[in-house]
Amino acid sequence: MPDGLIWNKDTNTGKNMALTLFLSSTLRRYMAGYDPSRGVVLEIRPGMSVRELLSQLGIPQREVKVVMVDGIHKDLDYELRGEERLALFPPVGGG
pTM for the whole thing? Predict the structure, then answer.
């Protein structure tokens, strides 16, 4: 994994912070083996923004329209605090 990011399916193992990530719809293609019913637990460095996390995961910012942290709408500059549930949603079209 890139610097500052550890994919860990179990628990926080050090000074990094645990975060549960949920990807909706087309965003799931950026994480091989992603299980939408469980999400994925990541360890991130303290103070990492959502924008930085997207970059580390290789998810283009333009593909994320809605960011929710523990059910509350946040922006891409929100600094993650750990032990949070981060949900990312792509733009949706309709008519």
Answer: 0.82
Nearest to 50 by CA among 76, 11, 24: 76
String of DSSP letters for 12-55: --SSSEEEEEEE-GGGGGGSTT--TTT-EEEEE-TT-BHHHHHH
Residue 57: its H or E element: helix 50-57
pLDDT per residue as tens digits for the range 68-77: 999 999 999 9
Domains of the chain, with CATH numbers? Answer: 5-89 (3.10.20.30)
Q: What is the pLDDT of residues 14-40, one digit of tens each?
A: 578 999 999 999 999 999 889 999 999
